[in-house]
Amino acid sequence: MSWVVLVAAAGGVALISAFLMLLYIASLMASPKPFSLSGAHVVVTGGSSGIGKSIAVECFKQGAFITLLARNENRLLEAKKEIEKYAVNDKQVVHCISVDVSKDSADVERVLKQAQEKLGPIDMLVNSAGMSVTGKFEDLDTSSFEKLMAVNYLGSVYPTRAAITTMKERRMGRIVFVSSQAGQVGLFGYSAYSAAKFALRGLAEALQMEVKPYNVYVTVAYPSDTETPGFIEENKTKLLETRLISESSSPLYQPDYVARIIVKDAIQGKFSSSIGTDGHMLNILTSGMSPMNSLGEALETVICMGLFRLIGQYYTASFDSIVRRCMIQKEKSEKTD
Between the CA of residue 179 and those of 36, 84, 216, 235, 250, what are the distances in Å? Predict the structure, then answer.
């Protein structure tokens, strides 16, 4: 009987330890106060089209003042006209600046200084500028890896460096990095793109640890395939395997829907922003040591991890099957030729 008592005692200690750990975690997860966009100055990079433009529209609908950054001046002016239709008061302004956020950090700092002189300190920065190139690792030029890292990663580093000091001084602010589900899991054909989008998560986790004491919160968004001009352009040269995997894993979302979720999560100060049921599952599966903002989020991760891990392995096996079938078809085609 003594061993029964020992086992029971050990179980009781384990339960008490787990409960105390949850209480400790809960004490560290004080959710930030919701952030109001009314009268706020929001800067959106890559804001002339796609998810970036939709985020600017959503923020403008909530009373924000907007600065759009993008390379193409004509598209910027077109986006400005479209966004202005959603004004909720006659004081709102949409300010456009043509700049390549991935080229010169000093240039990015200069234009953001101008934007703040015009519309006030930056309250929220949305790093949405990005691009994708698909192809097998050995078929991609090294210049493709360099370009994607410059646009998708450094194109977020430079604006963030230009905005973060003032946010810390004011002890308020939100920074959003628009990554991708390809920034959570590597997929066939995305060796260059996934690496650059994965880098955003590492940046975001380290930065959040630095700025949280200053009441500045970081959000990383992981949208899946979204019907944007960039996605349409990417599809023209996308590998068959990559396209089949994408089509089998999640639906194609509209940018306005994606933007609403990203803005809502950023306002609430959530670290990870996911889209749809598949995105939510993937977010839990890949959460690792990423920050959480509530005890409920922590409990959901613990409860769902095992089940979602099994489902994730099913998806991975399905993707591998798609690649194998494509290889077999290509081999048969080559023999026929």
Answer: 24, 27, 19, 18, 16
Helices (H), 85-128: 105-119
In CATH, what number is assigned to the domain containing residue 147? 3.40.50.720
Please give the distance of CA 19 from its chain centroid, rounded to a whole number. Answer: 32
The answer to whether residue 20 is domain-embedded is no
> Does 328 reside within a domain?
no
Instruction: Please determine, for residue 200, whether its predicted confidence score (pLDDT) is greater than 80.
Output: yes
Task: State pTM to two decimals.
Answer: 0.84
> Among 162, 158, 234, 154, which Cα is nearest to 199's?
154
Q: What's the rounded Cα separation, in Å, for the pair 17 and 23? A: 10
172 inside domain: yes
**pLDDT, tens digit (0-9, with 9 covering 90-100), for 86-96:** 999 999 999 99
pLDDT digits (tens, 9 = 90+) for 47-92: 999 999 999 999 999 999 999 999 999 999 999 999 999 999 999 9
Alpha helices per DSSP H over 133-275: 142-148, 155-170, 191-211, 229-235, 240-249, 255-268
Number of domains in the chain: 1
- Which residues have a Cβ under 8 Å from the Cβ of 4 and sit 6 or more positions away? none
| 60 within a domain of the structure (yes/no) | yes
Which residues are tagged catalytic? 179, 193, 197
Q: Cα torsion for 221, 224, 230, 235, to the nearest 10°? A: 160
Domain that holds residue 78: 34-288
